[in-house]
């Protein structure tokens, strides 16, 4: 691949990954032409969700995107710093805390809006296929139009059409887990929830693999309830009442029931089923010099390790570097790196999903491990007290 005044990068999908790639290319080169095609009718035609957890991998990339400077500065009200990931039982008693100091929550809508700055997205353009020839690639759209470019990047998310053509045998697995999310105004009378969610993301383990995530955001609590499916396509019969009934049956905790009851049905996202790529050991990307993938299109994963967007940003960074400095590496080197990072994240996410939804002896085993971890920490802290005291003493 050569970069000269004629390099045209076609980006399919104006989601977080595609827009991050477009920004990184445009801010670092005036000679590359970047065309972004998005199936949505306009930027407001689809709910983007509430907020997104960024780890150091994602933040390292986003802090290099100039149009995000304002959004990511410490005083910005779109960004919220976390202190802990907290695991609790259905009585809202702490099981164990993990440090989350390097993580931030960012308003998803604000992030997407900022990433759209100066990008001339072509809306209402549903990609259907591509064709490669000797000197380029042609992208075809549902409206009968087509466009020609040097390279085409599939950033079209978890059900990627680009991937279907590039790697027809690639499959997503249905994990038979149902997820629904909502928001409720923060309420001082839910004392335990208020205390636990102070700068923390809280995962509550209920019965029979039911689990609830609660996080504070601005004046609200955002929650996501998920569980292993019992009947086929259970998600088609879920109402607000079913969710409240689930809170009663599987958590049986007054504060949790009131949290769910106080959520407005209009703020609910889902219910939807969870899918994931299998944990591939071999790189499935065909080393095609004209077409590649990025983000969820390349490595669809569950949300439970908070890695999807973060890996998409890291992919965007590596791919932008390759397109901007083509002599330093090849597309296959990008794909190898992206494969390793992406499928490590797929594996972590699947592990996390299975662990939090486990039932029976697996759930007991999980709880035992957390118990041991918690008390090992206490023991280490106790043992280290005299050493700390000794260190602090002046000479
Ligand atoms: C509830 C929830 C919470 C999450 N929380 C986190 C989190 O805390 N941390 C984290 O890192 N990740 C999180 N994720 C995952 C994260 O949202 C995704 O991994 C990330 O958005 C992937 O970015 P992407 O650009 O690859 O895909 P997307 O953001 O899905 O963008 C794909 C875009 O392509 C467009 N498109 C699709 N098909 C076509 C087509 N045929 N033609 C043209 N355009 C098309 C879509 O409309 C969309 O705009 C969460 C996901 C969910 C659902």
From TrEMBL:
Pfam families, per the entry: FAD_binding_3
Keyword Flavoprotein in record: yes
Keyword Transmembrane helix: yes
Sequence ranges assigned to domain FAD-binding in this UniProt record: 7-325
InterPro entries: FAD-bd, FAD/NAD-bd_sf
Keyword field: FAD, Flavoprotein, Membrane, Monooxygenase, Oxidoreductase, Transmembrane, Transmembrane helix
Residues that span the membrane, as ranges: 6-26
One of the record's GO molecular function terms: monooxygenase activity
Protein name: FAD-binding domain-containing protein
Source organism of the structure: Rotaria magnacalcarata
